[in-house]
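Forum > Structural Biology > Help requests

Title: Can anyone predict the 3D structure of Probable protein chain release factor?

Hi all, first post here. I have the sequence for Probable protein chain release factor but no way to get a structure on my laptop. I'd be grateful if someone could post the structure tokens.
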Amino acid sequence: MNKEVLLSELNFKAVRSSGAGGQNVNKVASKMVLIFDVFSTLGLNEEERTRVQTKLKSKISQENLLILTCDEDRSQLKNKKIITQRFFDLLEKALQVPKVRKATTVSKSAKEKRLQEKKKAGEIKANRRKLDF
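Reply #1:
Sure, ran it for you. Structure tokens for Probable protein chain release factor below:
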């Protein structure tokens, strides 16, 4: 993953934010929309690209565009910083390779201990019965 190349490929669009805020909401376009083309990026190699496409399938549109929005702050610049950080965090999380699970077996001493406990429990239950002479 090449962050400089990815940063140059990001497209930002400023949009009017929704919700409460009075006149400021109606006049200022502070909401930032980040658009990233996953399919034609040069910042990711082929393996990373396929991993991102599978992991972020729900967030990618049919045109292979990853679209993120941020309207947390009233400042356009702060929203841009927040959304780029969120984008890189999302990519890093998607690119993590899961550890391969190693199959393990139950040890011999653990098996013996389990059998001894079963035998002990069985003896306790057997001793509860009434003796038949």
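The radius of gyration is 29 Å. The CA atoms of residues 34 and 84 lie 8 Å apart.
Shout if anything looks off.
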